[in-house]
Amino acid sequence: MAEPFTVRIQVRGYETDSQGHLNQSVYLQYAEHARWVQLQHGGIRQADLLAKGVGPVALETTIRYRRELRAGDEVDVSCAFVWTEGKTFRIEQSIHKTDGTLAAELTSAGGLMDLKERKLVADPREYFRALASDPRAFGL
Prior knowledge:
By secondary structure, this protein is of the alpha+beta class. Helices cover 23% and strands 38% of the residues. The chain is built from three helices and six strands, in the order βααβββββα. Strands 1, 2, 3, 4, 5 and 6 form a six-stranded antiparallel sheet that branches. It is elongated and about 45 Å long. The N and C termini lie close together (8 Å).
């Protein structure tokens, strides 16, 4: 597993619910944003994936909420790929306030879908290695 990649995000007021907490669905958006920024950081653009005929898919996500987030909070969203044998991989993510307080932990199972066949590719690592300018960004 590579060192987690981290993106800083400021919680915006319109992302909060009626109690003033970050809306639960926004945690997923923050996690998704961090994953796409990490892909770009490692040299993989969305256009590159499409040109290869594949796209990332989320198969399952678990969120463990630890502390509330409110408008104006700044958070660091981490992202680390954990490779397994076969068609799927895990992504471990955490959201920390800048003071170090853990706000949430997310674990996702994902894969790369062959967009023509509509099936997961046999070895997603192969695609990441081929497309990445820096495979180490993905623990490869």
